[in-house]
Design a protein that fits this description.
Number of strands: 0
Largest sheet: none
Helix content: 40-55%
Strand content: under 5%
Radius of gyration: 14 Å
Distance between the termini: 41 Å
Length: 73
């Protein structure tokens, strides 16, 4: 088995199968929503894309840290 990372071409590579067997419907829906959002961001012009990724990063960080995304950053 190779230690090389798997090539990632973009959010179109994201599949709801990636969340793992037995995942709840909510988790599958969230993964699908995130993939859709990433596709939408990828379609934006560069400056808008950077701002959208920055916003998404803040939201995901806040969620991981257990903070309210409205008050984070």
């Amino acid at each position: 088995m190779s230690d090389a990372p798997t090539e990632y071409a973009g959010p179109e590579d994201v599949s709801t199968e990636d969340v793992g067997p037995g995942a709840s419907a909510d988790v599958v829906d969230e993964a699908s929503d995130l993939a859709d959002r990433l596709r939408d961001i990828d379609d934006l012009p560069l400056e808008q894309r950077a701002a959208a990724f920055e916003q998404l990063h803040g939201e995901l960080r806040a969620r991981l840290e257990g903070a309210d995304p409205e008050t984070a950053d």
